[in-house]
Amino acid sequence: LVFSSFYQAKEKFKKELKIEGFLYSDLSVLASDIPYFPPEEEEENLEDGIHLVVCVHGLDGNSADLRLVKTFIELGLPGGKLDFLMSERNQTDTFADFDTMTDRLLDEIIQHIQLYNLSISRISFIGHSLGNVIIRSVLTRPRFRYYLNKLHTFLSLSGPHLGTLYNNSTLVSTGLWLMQKLKKSGSLLQLTFRDNADLRKCFLYQLSQKTGLQYFKNVVLVASPQDRYVPFHSARIEMCKTALKDRHTGPIYAEMINNLLQPLIGVKDCTLIRHNVFHALPNTANTLIGRAAHIAVLDSELFLEKFFLVAGLNYFK
């Protein structure tokens, strides 16, 4: 009787959501069937090399921001020969321009590999917010060219890949404008396409023209329509209705999307996956302005455990 009531309530809830997809409880097979704490762990054989996972925080963040992401991957894949680099080189100044932050992250990765004399078999990146743009910029640098054939998964959590154009929150747009003025932030200027009068000479447009994403086996874009800080369409790298109607900037926006996605289409070994996330959020000011959903991908244990067990762990196997 209890199960029947639960099933009926679940089906009613799915109809109210009006979205196609599966609920966590519908799935019979999860991404990992390994217990969190296996009884015995064999000594790791590192002859085949390790899987380096680089975690990069966002604006005004720090190296601890992605600690739960790291924890759930380690719990789900014990003995996975994973080595995590929790990037901290930019945490004292995320308001610098992207070129400066790219140099810092690239130096940090190379120094980490050399310091611990790591034999690398794979490299994956996990970024939050602005950190995803820094990651993409690192991929274009000549010094990173040696590692391109080792790239495995790019997990983008609320990444502003198309900047913050067409943000439907006036409050957030105004706040970012004020912050850019007060901090004299190069990165915020670049995210809003105000670093050059010619949009095709702006940092984000030029970055879209450079290679990078097609070297990954998995490009995973996680986005939430509840997030007002990073536009939903920017995190998913897709067109929006406002851009379609905009005859001035819209075509340039479409070019950027094509620049980013076209190389992926021609590569058989590269898979693009988009995940839409709907968080259960309390009625607070943070929820109202969209900040709660923006950081829920980092600090919601409910979301992270479900995400990695259902799908996320597959991308790091």
The H-and-E topology, N to C, reads as HEHEHEHEHHHEHHHEHHH
**What is the CA-atom radius of gyration, in angstroms?**
20 Å
Query: How many β strands by DSSP?
Result: 6
Distance between the termini: 40 Å
Portion in helices: 40-55%
Describe the protein in words.
This protein is an alpha/beta fold. The chain has 13 helices and 6 strands. It has helices spanning 2-17, 67-76, 98-115, 131-139, 170-183, 186-191, 203-208, 232-236, 241-245, 250-265, 285-288, 291-299, 301-310, and strands spanning 50-56, 82-86, 120-128, 151-157, 218-223, 271-276. The protein has a 6-stranded parallel β-sheet, sandwiched between helices. It starts with a helix and ends in a 7-residue tail after the last helix. Residues 48-241 form the DUF676 domain. It comes from Pelusios castaneus. Belongs to the FAM135 family. This is Family with sequence similarity 135 member B.
